[in-house]
């Protein structure tokens, strides 16, 4: 009994010294002697506690095994995913490397192409520069040739004018009228009908007479001109002066015209002054077209003479009143020459 009290006292003392979590634990260590001294109720309670603990341990073991299996399965999945990811990364690395190489090759090709284009552009620029130089040379050469052509035309026109200087051109003589007397006889008839004093002048001799052009065009409504070549320029001027003074020249009652016979170039140059002369005449500037194709008129009490329209335009630019007077006709002439240049 004394030993039992001592054991219980020691046990109570141990219970007092043990931590709370150990006191509340259902599973406790018992000595064999203590187990023998325990009552049957306590023993049954201990057995139930042990069985419950065993059951909890088994459940815990099962739970741990399940968790281990799940962890193993998850680890396997992670390992497989890791392998797949590794393979995917390797594949992507191969693709990226290949794409990088392709891009690099493309960039190299583009650089080569750009360099080739730069070289070709440089060659093209050099070629264009050469062509521009040649075009400039050709332009200068063409301008020089045009100047030479104009110069030769002027010489040719002057030669023609010199040759035709003693000639008179008669306009409006009907075709076939010369069959009776010939063209020389018709000219004598013109003088007798319009200038009786000249018709008696024996010094006025007709050297040659013909129609121009030589071949008659049946489709032409107006008759061909008659060209009368006299012996001297003096006789031609006398006839033309008389014609200007009389204003109206006739042949058998029909009106005709007597003009100087010029080259086609000179006639064209004289025609180009016609519109300007008409405007000047309407403003009482007394215009005249002098030999061979020179415009003369009175401006501010002075007689001005111009051999070209360019000189006239330069002069008109300094005279506001004259500029206003000739503005429309000079503008029309500029447009006309522009269209002719475009057609060429």
TrEMBL record:
<feature type="region of interest" description="Disordered">
    <location>
        <begin position="1"/>
        <end position="26"/>
    </location>
</feature>
<dbReference type="InterPro" id="IPR035300">
    <property type="entry name" value="L1_dsRBD"/>
</dbReference>
<dbReference type="InterPro" id="IPR042566">
    <property type="entry name" value="L1_C"/>
</dbReference>
<dbReference type="InterPro" id="IPR043636">
    <property type="entry name" value="L1_RRM_dom"/>
</dbReference>
<feature type="coiled-coil region">
    <location>
        <begin position="43"/>
        <end position="148"/>
    </location>
</feature>
<keyword id="KW-0175">Coiled coil</keyword>
<feature type="domain" description="L1 transposable element dsRBD-like">
    <location>
        <begin position="265"/>
        <end position="328"/>
    </location>
</feature>
<protein>
    <recommendedName>
        <fullName>L1 transposable element RRM domain-containing protein</fullName>
    </recommendedName>
</protein>
<feature type="domain" description="L1 transposable element RRM">
    <location>
        <begin position="165"/>
        <end position="261"/>
    </location>
</feature>
<dbReference type="InterPro" id="IPR004244">
    <property type="entry name" value="Transposase_22"/>
</dbReference>
<dbReference type="Pfam" id="PF02994">
    <property type="entry name" value="Transposase_22"/>
</dbReference>
<dbReference type="Pfam" id="PF17490">
    <property type="entry name" value="Tnp_22_dsRBD"/>
</dbReference>
<comment type="similarity">
    <text>Belongs to the transposase 22 family.</text>
</comment>
């Amino acid at each position: 009994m004394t030993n039992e009290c001592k054991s219980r006292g020691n046990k109570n003392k141990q219970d007092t010294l043990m931590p709370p979590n150990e006191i509340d634990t259902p599973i406790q260590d018992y000595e064999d002697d203590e187990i023998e001294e325990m009552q049957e109720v306590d023993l049954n309670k201990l057995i139930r506690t042990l069985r419950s603990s065993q059951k909890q341990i088994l459940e815990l073991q099962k739970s741990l095994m399940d968790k281990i299996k799940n962890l193993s399965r998850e680890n396997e999945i992670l390992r497989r995913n890791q392998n797949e990811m590794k393979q995917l990364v390797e594949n992507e690395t191969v693709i990226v490397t290949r794409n990088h190489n392709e891009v690099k090759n493309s960039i190299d090709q583009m650089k080569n192409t750009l360099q080739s284009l730069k070289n070709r552009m440089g060659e093209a620029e050099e070629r264009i520069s050469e062509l521009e130089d040649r075009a400039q040379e050709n332009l200068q050469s063409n301008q020089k040739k045009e100047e030479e052509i104009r110069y030769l035309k002027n010489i040719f026109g002057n030669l023609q004018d010199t040759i035709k200087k003693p000639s008179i051109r008669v306009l409006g003589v009907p075709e076939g009228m010369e069959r009776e007397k010939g063209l020389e006889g018709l000219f004598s008839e013109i003088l007798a009908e319009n200038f009786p004093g000249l018709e008696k002048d024996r010094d006025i001799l007709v050297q040659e007479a013909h129609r121009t052009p030589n071949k008659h065009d049946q489709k032409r409504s107006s008759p061909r001109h008659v060209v009368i070549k006299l012996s001297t320029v003096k006789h031609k001027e006398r006839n033309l002066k008389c014609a200007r003074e009389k204003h109206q020249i006739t042949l058998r009652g029909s009106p005709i015209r007597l003009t100087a016979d010029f080259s086609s170039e000179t006639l064209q140059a004289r025609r180009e002054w016609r519109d300007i002369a008409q405007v000047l005449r309407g403003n009482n500037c007394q215009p005249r077209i002098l030999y061979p194709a020179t415009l003369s008129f009175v401006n501010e009490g002075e007689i001005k003479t111009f051999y070209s329209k360019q000189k006239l335009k330069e002069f008109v630019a300094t005279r506001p009143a004259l500029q206003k007077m000739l503005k429309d006709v000079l503008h029309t002439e500029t447009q006309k020459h522009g269209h002719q240049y475009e057609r060429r």
